[in-house]
Amino acid sequence: MNSRGVLDTIGGSLGGIFARNAMDAPADIESAALRSDRFRLEREGDWRRLEGIIAAMERGGLRGVDDDDLLALPTLYRTAASSLAVARETSLDMATLQYLESLVQRAWFQVYGPRKGLFAWMREFLMGGWSRAVRALWLDICISLFVMVAGTIVGWLLVAQDTEWFYRLVGERMAGGRVPGASRESLEATLAVEETSSGLSTFAASLFSNNAGVAILAFALGFAFGIPSLLLLVHNLALLGAMMWVFADAGLAYEFGGWLSIHGTTELFAILLAGAAGLHIGRSMAFPGKDGVLDAAAAAGRRSAVVMLGVVIMMIIAALLEAFPRQLVDGANNRYLIGGIFLAFWLSYFFLFRIAEPGGEVQLSGSDA
Amino acid sequence: MSSAAATPVRTAPDPDSKRARTMVTPEGIAIPITIAARSSRLGALLLDLFILIGGLILIDTVIGAISSSLFGSAGQDSGAGALASQEFLNIVRIIFAFFAWYGYFLVQELGPRGATLGKRILGIRVAARGGGRLTPEAVIARNLLRDVEVFYPMIYLLVALILSLIGKAESGLLWAAVAWFLLFALFPCFNRDAMRAGDIVAGTFVVEAPRTKLAEAISTKGAAARDSASEITGARYEFGDAELGIYGERELKTLERMLREGNEEALAAVHATICRKIGWDPGAGDERAFLEAFYAQLRARLENNMRFGKRKADKFS
Lengths: 369, 317
Hints:
A: about 375 residues; mainly alpha; 2 domains; elongated; B: about 325 residues; two-stranded antiparallel sheet
């Protein structure tokens, strides 16, 4: 099957060139003795024409198909499908049956294939699909937000009670001098701007890769009923809470807030959405409602996937903010300003930017569930 | 598992097969489909990983070679400029790897064939469960999950293995990695449709996508077209009702397959068997004409009975 598969794939691309020649098959219909053979010979031309159109569509979408063929496609598809139904009841020619089954299946995949290209879909996604999907997850976003706030408070309280917790949560390596009891000066230095911008762009790219990975993990772990997603959120935010305590202890709470908010409003928002998307899947699997578990999971998965694509975009923006403005813009007030502008932008984009859903079958938010 | 598909004439989805499903289109047409074998899916994944990682390493090497030849000749004196270009190249590498990793699967599965290169080579494709349209969000969902199923456990396992090799291992870590890996790797083995976790979340499954060519009808050529007369001897083979009545549709199917394969020894054996069954004296040298005539007449009889609602599945019925 495998070597044949390879040949078929290669042959498939060549096949289109010869498909038209093959259309004038010998149609010696009268001489065929069997009724099923006459049936086949009468319709073979149509089948081969359909096969040619399908092969062209498989190669390059609708570009390689001329208008006449395109108009004929639905009719040819239905002809082939009804031929299959008739052949099943009247013909024992396996070659015909197998060919028709494969042909109808291929035609079906093309007729009901993805209607939009990736770029048309992306446009729809940015112009309302994304924010609609986010709004559909409002309950999960509320739960995730609660969990994140709780995680921060827990981290803060743990370290406030016993500074040993800091090392357990953060780890020596990642802390990089930002440890409990560090002097105000050394902590201030970690918040300061860099002298030059060199090295920062690589930093941004790796940050993005890393953060997007965490977000995708938070989403994908939702599969286990959402619990690992929530744990991941708690862990990451407890870390943040611990760090906050260290700076607040040194009287740098306001500066730390500015340092964090410049990219944090975008990044934490993205993590919030990723966790909510994961939770959404987990919740719909744990409580599928009147649909089956599989249907509920699939509907939730499609809705969440739209949100997740947006999360990746937010992560790119957050990484750029983290690498450049955060390291280059000085002064807590400026930093708060930039962070606040982004937060206001996201909130209004998601919750005020309401465009009516386009009619038809194309539904980004998957509200067909 | 796919032994049935290994024959040159691709067998139709056998209705008895565990992997056969029927998809009902919105027009109400039932289309038989076959769930892709788990072995082909594993093969497709390995092929894709091989292509993707191989391609990334190749491109990375090329970028590295170009940059070193550019900056190697410029020497050390260009300082800051070279550093900035080097940095730019690093960003290009990281971003390129990221988009290649997700783009490779996304773009190809959203294409008209609904399959990555590896899947196409193995003749399988992604389809929406339940006969709907394969949507972009479904493809995105199933590919995001792939990370947790394949990518992270692989890295995790690798790290744990290396740690254990240098003797720093906590065996707990290794076992957790193995368990994680096995959980998702074996996931498709525990449901009927061979879905992995990503398929469940996206509402998709992977099916076989046969590209069968229309083979010529045996009953319109050869001895069957010449009124059952042999080309070599000129003899006409005529079979009576009782002689044709011993076989059913399954035997007809087998005979058709063997005639298409055209293995002379096998044909001779079949010829001898049929002659023995119907009490003819098996000659030699004219097996093909005999079998073609027998095929055409058996088919004519079975199809004729079919029209009256009488079907004979095999020789036992």
